[in-house]
Every structure is written in structure tokens, then in C-alpha cells.
Write a structure and sequence with these properties.
- This protein is mostly helical and 195 residues long.
- Helix content is 76%, strand content 0%.
- The protein has 9 helices and no strands.
- The longest helix is centred in the C-terminal third of the chain and has 27 residues, at 121-147.
- It is elongated and about 60 Å long.
- It starts with 5 loop residues before the first helix and ends with a helix.
Length: 195
């Protein structure tokens, strides 16, 4: 029997994840069954269970993808050359958030992941660790800003990083739950508060 290539296996796994994401976006985590995902993927039961043993495995895999994309973007902001000011970094993060809060946006899944993490200890641990790393990118950004003279020499970079990071999911929640404000308005408010 011919061996299946790694590329084929990766494509099949992605097909299942894409189907699960569509189901979760449409019906939410709790209203989606493995049978729904199997039907959406157009695969056999055995094919899906070969890659994911449970719906929780699917949720975790999607959470890893969603959080990974955001973390990569935050890391790029923290390492940008020349160093970004804290305000510039948050503005760029907010622009990313605005793109990802639309009907098919990744952050709509993130909101479900946050809620699911409140009841699933394994997912909560994963999300907690991932968000600590993301907050760390903002601490790094604040450290660079302090070292560049953009912040006072005695600034508490841990506290500043936590506040800067908090502005991003705060904006995401406002966009998804109340459809406002837009990124330009949010950035204008930020520039007024943090000149």
C-alpha cells in the first residue's frame, strides 16, 4: 500500500480544522457536534477521528492557531526597528484587531475560546500561558520604549506591558459586542490619553 505523504496528511488535518472553524463560527462550540464537523468536512468518521479524538482536541487546535497568529503579530510589534512607541504599537495592534473582528474574523473564535477556558482546565492552562507570553511582548515593547527615553527611566515595564496588552482585547470586545468604536476613533482616544 503506498505511503501517504506528509503534505497530504497536513492538508487533510487543515481540511478538518477549516470545517470545524466554519461550524464553530456558525453555531458556537456547544451547539456543534463532532458529527457536524464530519459532515462539514465531507469525510468519514474514521478520517476525522484519526486526527482529532474529540471536540475538545479540535477546540484546542483552533485556539492554538488563533492565538498563534495574534502572538506572532505582537512579537513583530515588540521587535520592530526602529522601536515603536507604546501608542504606535497599540494602534497597529488595534488595526489587526479591526480586521479580525468581522463575521469571519479569527477573534470571533477567540471570544469563544476565552469563554470555554472558564470551564475547561486544560484549555485554561493553555490560554493562560499563551496570554502571558503575549503580555510579555508588550513588556518587551515597554522596556524598549523606556530604554529609548519614551517612558520615564523608573517606569514599571511589567505594569505598562499589562495595561498596553489589556487595551487590545478590550478593543476587540467592544468591536464584537457593540460594533464600535472603529480603529481610528480608538487610536484618537489613545493618543489623547497617552500623548
Amino acid at each position: 500500500m503506498p505511503r501517504v505523504s506528509e503534505a497530504h496528511l497536513a492538508a487533510r488535518r487543515q481540511q478538518i480544522l477549516d470545517a470545524a472553524r466554519r461550524c464553530f463560527m456558525r453555531d458556537g462550540f456547544h451547539n456543534t457536534s463532532m458529527q457536524d464537523v464530519i459532515a462539514e468536512a465531507g469525510l468519514s468518521v474514521g478520517a476525522v477521528y484519526r486526527y482529532f479524538k474529540s471536540k475538545n482536541d479540535l477546540i484546542t487546535a483552533i485556539a492554538e492557531s488563533v492565538i498563534g497568529d495574534a502572538s506572532t503579530m505582537f512579537e513583530e510589534l515588540a521587535r520592530h526597528e526602529p522601536p515603536l512607541s507604546p501608542t504606535e504599537a497599540v494602534e497597529r495592534a488595534v488595526t489587526f484587531v479591526e480586521r479580525e473582528t468581522g463575521p469571519d474574523g479569527l477573534l470571533r473564535i477567540a471570544l469563544q475560546v476565552w469563554a470555554e477556558a472558564m470551564r475547561d482546565p486544560a484549555l485554561a492552562e493553555f490560554v493562560g500561558n499563551a496570554y502571558s507570553r503575549m503580555r510579555g511582548h508588550f513588556v518587551h515593547l515597554a522596556t524598549r520604549a523606556r530604554d529609548a527615553g519614551q517612558l520615564p527611566a523608573d517606569a514599571d515595564v511589567e505594569a505598562i506591558g499589562a495595561v498596553l496588552f489589556g487595551m487590545v482585547p478590550g478593543y476587540a470586545l467592544q468591536r464584537m459586542l457593540s460594533n464600535g468604536p472603529d480603529a481610528k476613533t480608538y487610536a484618537a482616544g489613545l493618543r489623547t490619553l497617552v500623548p
